[in-house]
Task: inverse folding
């Protein structure tokens, strides 16, 4: 197949697009060399990213790397979305201060199905290969596995910051956790990957894949690292466990409201990593914010519209903005709403949203509360509640709305 038939853009154009938003490319020279050969032969590069299905939902933090995969895909390259159904039962130790609980085979497969249904909000389903690493790991015999394990040392594994810190503190590190990076690295050998995509916390794993390909006489992959997206709290990386995430399957109103809650200092980062706005447009926004001539709220509203439109539609984005402006910026809450005193958990000040709904009388049972949340009919202040397990910080009064008619002001008991 000829290069013209594939339709690859010139290498410099590909590099300009791919560099945008990237944290580190190891190495740019290797990537340019691979792209040049790809163009010459008319053969797409194999771009891989692995996901261990340890949680069933994808959020904008995951989408940072998936969106970069989509850029490679738009350039004509071959995308492999690898589901680590085998390694998922081990658990990635990256960034972990203790051994991660192992998942059952059933949990891994259930989460993997959910991933497959969500990733095509970003990638082209007809041009994306979904693979499972049990295809090769499950069939490897013990001798092959020992050969793989024998190629690396404990000292090399302790180069990982998370391992080293835990080792110095005398905290346990399971042999399985040592084996995880090796198994992930071998995925690149099995797929003959040209490029592996990952967040900055995956640097050790990606570089190990680059090294192990050399051990198996393959051309070393490019380690393509993207920044970690800070969550809506403005402090930690986006994570469902920290409840600072924006899910790519969130309702439009909820997605819009969460984006509006981020600190102003994250606006440019979110435009860069979570939208399709070109570099020139982002530069204008950065200059506006630095100069102080334009209220950052205007740019944040545009950011929220851009994100909602990506995962829903332009109409949904407009509707979400109208709802937000009408209800929250203009404070369109009735004056004479009932005030109800509720007791949060001592010390933490938290209360489960279902308990909040029950204590306020908004619902008569936890089952009814869960159904209302799943129907998208529950709001706390400006936030649309989409998770029935969520906890609410009750440090001051809040507005609770359940359905179209039940609205009250919740006051924490002194």
Result:
């Amino acid at each position: 197949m000829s290069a013209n038939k594939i339709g690859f853009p010139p290498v410099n154009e590909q590099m300009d697009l791919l560099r945008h938003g990237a944290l580190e490319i190891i190495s740019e020279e290797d990537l340019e060399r691979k792209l040049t050969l790809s163009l010459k032969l008319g053969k797409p590069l194999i771009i891989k990213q692995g996901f261990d299905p340890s949680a069933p939902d994808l959020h904008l933090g995951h989408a940072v790397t998936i969106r970069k995969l989509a850029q490679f895909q738009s350039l004509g390259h071959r995308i492999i979305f690898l589901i680590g159904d085998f390694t998922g039962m081990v658990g990635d130790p990256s960034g972990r201060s203790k051994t991660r609980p192992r998942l059952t085979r059933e949990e891994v497969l259930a989460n993997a199905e959910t991933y497959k249904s969500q990733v095509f909000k970003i990638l082209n389903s007809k041009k994306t290969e979904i693979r499972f690493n049990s295809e090769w790991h499950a069939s490897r015999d013990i001798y092959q596995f020992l050969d793989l394990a024998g190629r690396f040392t404990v000292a090399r594994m302790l180069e990982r910051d998370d391992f080293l810190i835990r080792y110095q503190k005398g905290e346990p590190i399971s042999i399985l956790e040592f084996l995880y990076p090796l198994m992930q690295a071998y995925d690149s050998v099995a797929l003959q990957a040209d490029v592996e995509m990952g967040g900055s916390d995956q640097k050790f794993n990606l570089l190990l894949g680059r090294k192990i390909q050399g051990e198996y006489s393959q051309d070393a992959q490019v380690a393509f690292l993207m920044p970690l997206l800070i969550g809506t709290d403005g402090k930690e990386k986006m994570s469902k466990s920290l409840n600072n995430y924006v899910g790519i399957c969130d309702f439009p109103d909820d997605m819009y409201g969460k984006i509006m809650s981020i600190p102003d200092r994250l606006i440019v980062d979110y435009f860069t990593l979570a939208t399709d706005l070109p570099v020139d447009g982002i530069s204008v926004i950065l200059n506006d914010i630095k100069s102080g001539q334009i209220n950052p709220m205007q740019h944040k509203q545009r950011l929220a519209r851009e994100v909602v439109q990506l995962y829903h539609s332009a109409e949904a984005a407009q509707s979400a903005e109208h709802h937000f402006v009408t209800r929250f910026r203009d404070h369109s809450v009735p004056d004479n709403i009932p005030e109800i005193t509720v007791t949060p958990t001592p010390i933490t000040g938290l209360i489960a949203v279902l308990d909040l709904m029950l204590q306020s009388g908004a619902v008569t049972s936890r089952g009814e509360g869960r159904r209302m949340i799943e129907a998208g009919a529950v709001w706390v202040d400006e936030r649309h509640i989409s998770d029935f397990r969520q906890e609410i910080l009750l440090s001051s009064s809040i507005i609770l709305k359940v359905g179209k008619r039940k609205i009250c002001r919740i006051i924490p008991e002194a």
Notes: Residues 260 and 331 are 15 Å apart (CA to CA). The first helix runs from residue 3 to 6. Confidence is low (pLDDT under 50) at residues 94-99. The radius of gyration is 24 Å.
